[in-house]
Amino acid sequence: MRIKFWGVRGSISSSVRGESIRSKVQKILSLATPADLQSPDAIDSFLDSLSLSYWSTYGGNTTCIEIRDKKTI
After folding, report:
1. Distance in angstroms (rounded) separating the CA atoms of residues 13 and 63
2. Nearest 5 degrees, angle CA 48-CA 51-CA 55?
3. What pTM was computed for the model?
4. CA distances in angstroms from 36 to 28, 40, 62, listed in the order given
5. SS (H, E, C) the chain
6. Per its UniProt entry, which superkingdom is the organism in (predicted)?
7. How far is CA 63 from CA 3, 7, 18, in A?
8. What is the mean predicted confidence (pLDDT) over 22-49?
């Protein structure tokens, strides 16, 4: 069994900074075409086509624990 702790920052948590969110929004808007913004369904489809790193955040104020064995995650 292998255990890995992601996002461990000691006892000091860190939140997502405003400029990080702004940068993500700018990147997403630069990738969108007018057709991607025509309707709520089109927007959802566009967002669904993006990788997790564009529309989500990670690393903030919680630790993630990954547990693996040879068969199961």
Report:
1. 9
2. 75
3. 0.59
4. 11, 9, 33
5. CEEEEECCECECCCCCCHHHHHHHHHHHHHHCCHHHHCCHHHHHHHHHHCCHHHHCCCCCCCCEEEEECCCCC
6. Bacteria
7. 13, 5, 21
8. 96
Q: Please report whether residue 37 resides in a domain.
A: yes
Whether 52 is covered by a domain: the verdict is yes
List the single range of 1-5, 12-16, 17-21, 35-39 with lowest mean pLDDT: 12-16
| Placement of tokens 């990788």 in the chain | 51
Residues of the domain holding 11: 2-68
Q: According to the model, what pLDDT value does residue 15 have?
A: 73
